[in-house]
Hints:
By secondary structure, this protein is α+β, with helices and mostly antiparallel strands. It has a single domain (2-146), classed as Aminopeptidase (3-Layer(aba) Sandwich). It has four helices and seven strands, in the order βααβββαβαββ. It has a seven-stranded mixed β-sheet with strand order 1-2-3-4-5-7-6, with helices on both faces. The chain is globular and about 40 Å long. Coenzyme A is lined by residues 25-26, 77-80, 85-91, 113, 117-120, 122-123, 126.
Amino acid sequence: MVRPYRAEDRPLLDAFYDAFQPKRAAQGLPPEGPQRVARWLEGVLAGGDHLIVEVEGKLVGHAMLMPTGKQGVREYAIFLDESVRGRGMGTQVNRLSAELARTLDLDRLWLSVEPHNRAAVRSYQKAGYRFRPATMYSPEFEMELELAPGAAEAS
Ligand SMILES: CC(C)(COP(=O)(O)OP(=O)(O)OC[C@H]1O[C@@H](n2cnc3c(N)ncnc32)[C@H](O)[C@@H]1OP(=O)(O)O)[C@@H](O)C(=O)NCCC(=O)NCCS
């Protein structure tokens, strides 16, 4: 189940990131240690829209659409528990997040991802994200999803 984040989820979200493996899996995130996790979440949850992924009542994932300095553009990120990775769930949640973004009348989702993170890159591609070509030879790819009606369909 995917549903909006609620304030009462906070202790479970802290515990989720505290137990997250491998530590600092993506661009140094989530941070290591409960205090760093709490401080990071404080900032992350201060704005934007957040989705919680549950399997049989257990919190197993978090997707976030965070504000950027640009009107209509949000930064997207997703973290799933190790136990549920590699079964198509990330792709599904990416697609649902894009649907949410459309209901929020956003123009675009943007993200950066390390090229070696094949599952992440592929799950974003399958949800319709495209590479920003200028970043293809950078240490981090940037990808974007145009949300306007008629924008490129996912492959
Ligand atoms: C990135 C993440 C959200 C992807 O979700 P997922 O449920 O594991 O991915 P999916 O099962 O939807 O798979 C998407 C694609 O990646 C492929 N894939 C999955 N795991 C893979 C792996 N370990 N190596 C290579 N490809 C992989 C799948 O085969 C699928 O492609 P295909 O349909 O062409 O076969 C999830 O793995 C995760 O939370 N990872 C740790 C945190 C992270 O890196 N977040 C991203 C921050 S930028």
